[in-house]
Design a protein that fits this description.
Length: about 200
């Protein structure tokens, strides 16, 4: 089982039952794992590539999905936003369910101000403008006090924050567009643990 490293989270308006489904001759949903609290699926489809209205080749694409049943949240993993958007639209139509993208970035920022939230800030990246020039700045955030962290958040408008989940012992990052990214070495079980924990931000 292979997951892309980047994902976007959504809340849905009701529970859905997702099994392995053949959507059409060129699309299918494959069940990869069915656990008590979550399911993992892969949505596969064939995208025809045309030139001057003629089919010249076919490209097989896929987006993986982790669905948390109790939280009614779905995380879509893909190598492009267009692929994720395509699968989102297909799922909405197939299951007659409403999707709402979760603004995880501000929610995680708010949670980080709570001392009992078990996420440790590792690194903060932001763009600093000086003399009309933009410069990417990366700050090692280990050891920053809560006040120092909040000062950077309020004054620098960070683009990406790298975090360590102490509960699941896994690293990940969240950017200003609320996209989550995991390291290549992070196991699927660790990703599931992080996402289940992050889902608490939604409620």
């Amino acid at each position: 089982m292979i997951l892309e490293r980047d994902c976007i989270g959504y809340s849905i308006d009701r529970a859905i039952k997702v099994d392995s489904i053949t959507v059409s001759n060129f699309e299918k949903i494959e069940m990869l794992s069915d656990c008590t609290n979550y399911q993992i699926h892969q949505y596969n489809w064939v995208d025809p590539i045309k030139y001057k209205e003629k089919l010249i080749s076919k490209s097989t694409k896929s987006v993986s999905m982790i669905y948390f049943k109790n939280q009614l949240t779905i995380f879509l993993f893909g190598n492009s936003e267009s692929n994720i958007s395509y699968v989102e639209s297909r799922l909405k139509r197939l299951f007659s369910v409403k999707f709402k993208k979760v603004d995880l970035y501000p929610k995680i920022i708010n949670k980080l101000s709570s001392n009992n939230y078990k996420l440790k800030v590792i690194n903060i990246q932001f763009v600093r403008v000086k003399d009309n020039l933009e410069k990417w700045v990366s700050i090692d955030a280990i050891g920053l006090s809560k006040n120092e962290f909040l000062k950077i958040i309020n004054e620098e408008n960070p683009q990406t924050i790298s975090l360590y989940d102490e509960l699941n012992k896994a690293y990940f990052s969240v950017d200003i567009n609320s996209s989550l990214s995991f390291n290549d070495t992070t196991t699927i079980s660790d990703i599931v643990g992080v996402l289940e924990y992050v889902s608490s931000c939604i409620s």
